[in-house]
Structures
1.
Amino acid sequence: MNTQTQYATAKPTGSKLKIAVGIAAVVIVIGAIAADTKVVQIGSAHDVREQGFQPETYGAQEFPKVLANVSQRAVDAVTLANAVLADKKAAGEKYGVATSTGPVVPVTLTGTFGDRKANLNDFKVEGMPDGVTVRVQTGPAINGTDLRDATGKIAFGQFTNQIEYQDAGSAINNEMKKATLASLDPEKLTGKTATVVGVFKLINPKNWLVTPVKVDVK
């Protein structure tokens, strides 16, 4: 009987040991999971990478950087026009950011909005050399990737593929529309004076198509 009593007492002790070992194992697994878990703030750059490319978020993050960069580097239109007509290549290298189809140049223009055609307005700048035509994209459609390419800091290698790279340009254009053009009625700009800061691709020295980053109507 003593043997049976001792055996009965030992059995529960073994069960408790198994339970304790099991609990310890669970604690170790939970600890390992916690150690390998990264807290990601919603909307942060890492969050964007985790979700995949988010054009709207990207545009909101990058347009202010483009605005600051272009505003700082913008060249007076008359000064730039004279430089471009004198030596297009030298002016592009001095003031612009190179792309495969020509340099993107930052410019500041003060003048008067002219006739509207589609999504553009002519823009007359006093003192510009004869024969130089300036047009400003005033929406609602904004075409091209000049804003994306204006700083030289956004490159194809930062994106998964060509589609994302193109979407990045569209996203920055869309954010510019919200920040810069949303308060303007493009149908009522003709005849109004303004200061425009923007960029254009230097292909034809006498034909500028400016994509704005800032428009101050007087």
2.
Amino acid sequence: MAVSVNRDMTVMVEDTTVRKLTDRQEALKRSIQKGEAKVLGVSQVMVGLLVILYSLPLLIPAFTEVVTFGVPWWSGTVFIITGAVAIATDKHSNMKFLSVCLVTTGIGLLVSILALIFYFIDLYNHPTSPPSKDCNPHTEDCRTEHLAVAFSRGVKSSLLLFTIVHAVISSILGYNLYKDRKCFTDYTTMDQLIPPSSTIELN
């Protein structure tokens, strides 16, 4: 605790621990911003939008497991929410937002893994097969089913790739947030215990 006397006989009592805590909070803000939470959050939002937009053609051919369970739509929505929270964390840069972002990033990673399982199962259950030998090659109906399956698999492969990208982004962001939270958790507890610095005026 530091004490200083001004010329007007005002005594300033400053708690050095409070000052250190403030410095640590500023360091936390710089650390979060250094971790590029905003950039990663924008990337997550973009991936979520791409997943939803690219999945729309899947409504045209016959429905498979991915469309039946709505995998692209709920996974894409979670990706967008996760990215929005990461962007907000970069803006506010405090322990509360950091903890919320860490939780949502973990949920986003789990959703990515679950979506990948659905995509792999769907691609395995619906392989591309050549047109039947009995089919007349001069008719349009001969290759329609083959082309529909091939198109559907191409779209799902793209969605699978986007989901892998989101899983990687979530892993990087989660690792950075976990490091920041681990470094500064002790100082959050100190913030609740330390009273603010006071000013004493002498008569």
3.
Amino acid sequence: MPTTQDVIDAIKKSLPDDQALWSVLGFINPRKQILAFGDDSKIIGRLFEVVVEPYLQQVANELGFELGLSEQQTVYPDFWFIKPDHRLIAVDIKSTYRRFSKNKYASHIGFTLGGYASFLRNGTKNIYSTYDNYDAHLVIGFVYTRNSEATVGISDIADISKIKAAYTDVSIFVQEKYKIAGQSKGSGNTNNIGTIKASSIEPFVEGQSYFSVFGNAVFEDYWRNYPKYTDSKETKEALYTDLLGYFDWLDRTGKNDQSKTLRDQYKKWRADPKNESIV
């Protein structure tokens, strides 16, 4: 049976290097007109899901899996592999665009990784099958640059070579979810897991999160107990919002041995020069 790393390697191998194959120019109508869709991040994110599907089907065929596809955006994951033993591997598609300062320096890259108050706590909520039926949770991440010179409006298909896409410079990574997860929420009034943030895509490619050192079990424990945005002030104060607070919480709940080990691992991770740019 293929390992999780075998599946990741197979996905990486299947995805094309040709930038043109990731470039969707617009929607076409029966009059052979191409309608530009602008730089709406939700539309572009959905397009990546559509484009990646045949490559995931190719991987499924190669590995002897079946490929499942979510029909509801509120149900996790976007895709899943069904193995011969009926165990599952989740594949979620995430995307974001590069942000630049006035001096044209790229800001830190970050994503949201879905909810932490649904299937992580209730194994049947907003998920295909049940959470405990998954052997791994993978993320295919896309980072792109919005194109300020993108074609707008309607173009004739005869002019397709002149159309400029809404985005350029697509970079891709395939990684296990916990290996890119961060210690903070991905957005304000939601219960979404955030990723690490880095100035380049490399930490996502390599899976350099502190949770990659701690392991998936710690990642799940951290986010299962992280306060929800609707929790009372008292509840939030009794929990934590970062790793140092989590270590203290472990102490308060009698898991001192575990907290000491994690503190030491975190200090070692933070002291590694390759992690300096990660927040």
4.
Amino acid sequence: METVIESFEHFHKLFSDWPSQTRYYFRGVSKSYYELIPSLGRSTDETGYYDEQRMLREFKSQAQAYMNKIPNNDWEWLALAQHHGLPTRLLDWTTNPLVALYFAVKDDIEINEQEKSNGYDGSSAFYFLIYKTPPLDITISKSPIDYVNSESSRGHGLFWPPHATPRIKAQSGVLSVQQDPSKPFSYGSRLEKYIIPQHLRTKFRQILNAYGVNDSSMFPDLDGLASHLKNIREDHYRSWERDA
């Protein structure tokens, strides 16, 4: 069953009473029909040559030129790679519902003809997860890839990534890892989905900005700042008619 969010007041009533940083997690996605499939499962490599392990090895080898602090293990490396766009078997979650709402509505959506024919209406989605199992102990295995494929694992779990990048800290980030990244993350009735209608995107962005949740705070660098200032112009004045 999917619940439609009717207003920010409705959203606040639903999620303001859940204590943060315990066992309640949130995720926002820009299009409501997107499944909870990690980016590795959504990307294609028909040859099998450029696989998960190879991508991570090359990322580790070449990323060090851009870093002041080197991650301690592959859990940290994979979390860092995830936040910079490398396809991984991880999914981003947060303990802050406002952060998840931000990721659900931060982009304006253009609906293509294929989406229209499939009945997509421009809505986004907000997920609420009650995960009673304790977070994974990342000290017992060198790599998340090895961990989820080991006989002793459940094949999935959540872990708190070290703050290897300011983005993780700013986004109150938590990550899930799963054995088969080609399948949607699922957790039975403890995973709930909420729909956010398209017409609420701009209004929600304006409210979130008033609470200090915007591109600049979620991506604390020059790219985030520039994007934030552009969004102020677009959302408040709607005068930016070109993507430049």
